[in-house]
Amino acid sequence: MDWQTPEDSVPSSFITEANNRALIGKPPASGAWREGDPAGHRRFANLGPLRLERGGHIPNVRMAFETWGELNDDASNAILVLHALTGDSHVVGPPTLGHPTTGWWSGIVGPGRYLDTERWFIVAPNMLGGCQGTTGPASHTTEGIEWGPRFPYLTIRDQVAAQVAFSDSLGIGRWAAVVGGSMGGMHAIEWAVGHPERLERVAVLAAPALSSADQIALNSVQIEAIRMDPAFRGGDYYDAADGDGPYRGLALARRMALLNYRSPDELNARFQRSWQSDISPLGDQGRFAVESYLDFHGNKFTRRFDANSYITLVEAMNSHDIGRDRGGVEAALARATAKALVLGIDTDRLFPVPDQQEIARGLAGNIDGDDAIVISSSFGHDGFLIEDDLVGPHLRRLLAS
Fold it and tell me: What angle in degrees, to the nearest 10, is found between the helix axes of 307-318 and 183-194?
């Protein structure tokens, strides 16, 4: 759900006065990419109307995406890379005008890297309901106002249906591979089960076959943190007269989420009980370093994300159940025909290894070996984003099969 940024790779002392001062000041009402903002490396596909699993429709879906490499003549070298909850289409590259963050998988995607753009055509869309160019709550309706709280409820299957329409718009009938981690892994396994004829390989990284009660409970608390912010205004905050948005609630939700993305051992070893004397984003001093770390990332997050979009995407994660209306998880997974990689992380407390083992058992005829691949990492759930040299060789092996 999180991705690696430069500050994630350095010791706890990274929270310097200079870093914090750069984030002083009230965040915008929404950190979403808005019409008229610099497009950066984004391209856009207009997909037309989309009917939704639970009824209703979106009159026109626009999908933002980025690509790397060249599509070959028979479109057989295309790989679809699907991002996690707070990711977007910017997989590779530095922050630039239009892209507030470093590419989240720059160690995996690129010339000569594990997803080698000299061989493969890599496509990364921003998911439906997101806030970085694809249709979502911060987008305008046909009446010219933001969808806001009126944006329809989405499921993982709705988001994959939009990705299928997007694939058609590119003229790609069958992907060489669909690769996703965390929420993107939910999409990847939905592709394999719901559209087996459309992909040759699938990589499911640190994701479950269904969202458990425990995972839904964690998500529900984050949603409530946003809704309890007085500046949320029931979701209609984009044009608030005072310019105030629900950044406090969104930052709190982000801090809660970070506790699930990293492992207890990593936080204990990295911060211990060290005291942070530098000025925090809120302007106070004298806090534990781990508190300052959470505040820094919460404050930073509000400047690139949208509160309504966060709620929409988290609720879509809650909907995830690969076995729904398919006779259960085991029967659903039996539909998949793609060669598969299922990878878990030994310290993942958000989607622990038994979640990946369940998927691997269901795909037993499609995977190399008898079980999920488990990497050892101190980084917890975020290991699939950080441990390039542990994750990458398994992706390379899948693509060679």
Answer: 50
What is the SS3 assignment for 262? coil
Kindly list the structural domains of the chain, giving each domain's residue range(s) and its CATH number in brackets, ordered by start: 6-400 (3.40.50.1820)
Instruction: Indicate which residue of 30, 89, 139, 182 is catalytic.
Output: 182
**182 classed as catalytic:** yes
Asked if 131 contacts 139 with a C-beta cutoff of 8 angstroms, the reply is no
* pLDDT tens digit sequence for 108-162: 999 999 999 999 999 999 999 999 999 999 999 999 999 999 999 999 999 999 9
- Catalytic pick among 377, 381, 382, 394: 381
Say which of 348, 355, 382, 394 is annotated catalytic.
348
Q: Could you give phi then psi for residue 65, rounded to 5 degrees?
A: -155, 165
Closest CA to 262 of 227, 286, 287, 297: 297
pTM: predicted TM-score of the whole model, two decimal places? 0.91
Q: Rounded to a whole number, what is the largest CA-CA distance in the chain?
A: 61
Beta bridge partner(s), residue 179: 81, 203
Q: Give the three-class secondary structure for 317.
A: helix
Strands (E), 182-337: 201-205, 275-276, 287-288
- The 8-class DSSP code of residue 38 comes to -
Q: In the structure encoding, which two tokens stand for residue 21, read together?
A: 């001062």
Helix axes 307-318 and 247-261, enclosed angle (nearest 10):
40
Query: Which residue, among 96, 97, 100, 78, has the nearest Cα to 87 in the 3D structure?
Result: 100
3-class DSSP state for residue 76? coil
Share of the chain above pLDDT 90, in %: 79
Residue pLDDT, tens place only, 219-237:
999 999 999 999 999 999 9
What's the full length of the chain, in residues? 401
- And the tokens for 343? 């990878």
